[in-house]
Amino acid sequence: MSMLRLARLWSLMRTQALWGWRFHSLGPRSVVGRCRFVAHPGSVSIGHHTTLNDHWTLADLKPESGTGGPKIRIGSYCSILWDFQCNASISVEIQDYVLMAPRVFITDSDHVVDAAGERTTLNRGFRSAPVVIEHDCWLGVHAVILKGVRVGHH
Questions:
Q1: Is the pLDDT reported for residue 1 higher than 70?
Q2: How far is CA 16 from CA 4, 30, 48, in A?
Q3: Mean pLDDT over residues 68-82, rounded?
Q4: Interval 15-57: pLDDT, tens
Q5: What are 80-104's pLDDT values in tens digits?
Q6: SS (H, E, C) the chain
Q7: How far is CA 11 from CA 8, 24, 84, 119, 131, in A?
Q8: Handedness of CA 36, 139, 149, 144 (dihedral sign)
Q9: Contact predicate 109/149, CB 8 Å
Q10: Closest by Cα among 80, 88, 70 to 26
C-alpha cells in the first residue's frame, strides 16, 4: 500500500475516532483536520466525502435554544480549507459540492448594540437570521457571509 493511501486511511480512521461520536452526524469517507475551537459539537452535521482542513472553529452560539437537530449543516463532497470559522445561533446550511478557500467566516448572528440599552460588552443578545450556501458554490479567500444571506447555487 502506498504512503498516500496509508495517510488517507489514517485520516479517515482518526476522524471517525475523534469526531464521529461528538458531532450530531458525520458521513462516511469525511476527513476532519485539527480543530482550533468547537463549542457544542453535537449541533454540527457533516455529510459524506467532505474535507474540513486544519484550524477550523465551529460554535453553537445558543445551545439552550436547540431543537436537538444540527444548527451547522455541512453537506457532502464539500472541500473547506484551513482557518474556517462558522457561528450559528439559528442555522447555517452549507449544501453539497461547496468549495471554500482559506479563512472563510460565516455567521447567522450579530451582537445587539443599543445606545439606550445595556453596554455592548455586557449584552448577550443576538439578532439572527438563517444562512444558506447552496450547492456548487465557491467562496474565495477571506469571504465573510453574514446573517440572512443566501448564496445561490453555482
A1: no
A2: 19, 8, 12
A3: 95
A4: 999 999 999 999 999 999 999 999 999 999 999 999 999 999 9
A5: 999 999 999 999 999 999 999 999 9
A6: CCHHHHHHHHHHHHHHHHHCCCCCEECCCCEECCEEEEECHHHEEECCCCEECCCEEEEECCHHHCCCCCCEEECCCCEECCCCEEEECCCEEECCCCEECCCCEEECEEECCCCCCCCCCCCCCEEECCEEECCCCEECCCCEECCCCEECCC
A7: 5, 20, 19, 45, 29
A8: positive
A9: no
A10: 70
- Report residue 98 as a C-alpha cell: 461547496
How many other CB atoms are found less than 10 A from the CB of residue 21? 10
